[in-house]
């Protein structure tokens, strides 16, 4: 399982946006469908809402990857 840190500018990002930013989905539509199908976990729990707000420190498991939300330097 790979792990990557994803820096967010505003200190908060929606789950669907995070998946696209991290490059684990090609489009927002793909992300929406895969999230609704229960393929994403946030902090170890299945999340089916693409609008779920994530903050630095949250961990997302998706498609064999662990995505760690971090604050962008300077925030």
Short summary:
The protein is α+β, with helices and mostly antiparallel strands and 75 residues long.
Keywords:
75 residues, five-stranded mixed sheet, two-stranded antiparallel ribbon, alpha+beta, globular, Structural Genomics Hypothetical 15.5 Kd Protein In mrcA-pckA Intergenic Region, Chain A
The beta-strand count equals 7
- CATH architecture title: Roll
By DSSP (H or I, 4+ residues per run), the number of helices equals: 2
Distance from first to last alpha carbon: 29 Å
Q: Count up the domains.
A: 1
Q: Helicity, in percent?
A: 10-25%
Helix and strand succession?
A: EEHHEEEEE
**Strand order in space, largest sheet:** 1-7-6-3-4
| Overall form | globular
What average pLDDT do the residues reach? Answer: 93
Helix/strand-derived class?
Answer: alpha+beta
Low-confidence stretches: none
CATH-defined fold name: Structural Genomics Hypothetical 15.5 Kd Protein In mrcA-pckA Intergenic Region, Chain A
Instruction: Please describe the biggest sheet, giving its number of strands, its sense, and whether it closes into a barrel.
Output: 5 strands, mixed
CATH homologous superfamily (4th level) name: RNA-binding S4 domain
| Strand portion | 25-35%
- Would you state the CATH class? Alpha Beta
Output the radius of gyration: 11 Å
């Amino acid at each position: 399982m790979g792990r990557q840190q994803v820096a967010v500018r505003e200190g908060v990002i929606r789950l669907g946006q995070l998946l696209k930013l991290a490059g684990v989905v090609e489009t927002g539509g793909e992300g929406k469908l895969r999230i609704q199908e229960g393929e994403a976990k946030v902090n170890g729990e299945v999340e089916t809402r693409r609008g779920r707000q994530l903050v630095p420190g949250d961990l997302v498991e998706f498609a064999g990857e662990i995505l760690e939300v971090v604050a962008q330097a300077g925030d």
